[in-house]
Every structure is written in C-alpha cells, then in structure tokens.
Amino acid sequence: MQSRAARSEDAEAIARIYNEGIEERIATFETSLRTAREILNWFDGTHPVVVVEDEGVVISFANTSAYSPRGCYSGVAEFSVYTASEAVGQARLR
Q1: What domains are defined for the chain?
Q2: Taking the model in full, what pTM does it have?
Q3: Among 79, 86, 40, 75, which Cα is nearest to 62's?
C-alpha cells in the first residue's frame, strides 16, 4: 500500500468510495451521491486530498475542507477518511 497526493484521474474512485459511505449510512450525514465531476471541486489547491493505493487501485482517501466560512475559523479545516468496503481491515505493515 502506498499513499500519495490525489490526482484528478482519481475522482471516479474517490466518488465510488465516498458514495459507499453515503449508501451505508454509517460514515456521513450526506444523502446525495456524488459524481466524479463534483469530487473534482475538492481539488481547490487549498485543501489536500490524499489517496491510498494497493497494487495500483485506490482503496482509501482522506480530504480536508473548510470548517466554517466564519472569519474566526480561517485556516481551520475538518478532515474525513473513507476506505472502500472491500479494503476495510486489509491494512498491513510493510
């Protein structure tokens, strides 16, 4: 397994993993599934998106987003981590 900065071509895999979390109703309060095009909006140059690959397949991602638009929270971000259901529990140390 290897982590790296996400690229735009990862948007489809990120959307698939994120949508699993929405459908399973255990990871988010979101109710609308996301498209790869919507995920591309996360690549804003301010908030990092990182993926984990296993043998070239994206199995997990982490991203940050603005915590609040209020000025007192400028520079504060919340983060999320999602893992594909088939990869949960598969982490191994190398």
Answers
A1: 2-87 (3.40.630.30)
A2: 0.86
A3: 79
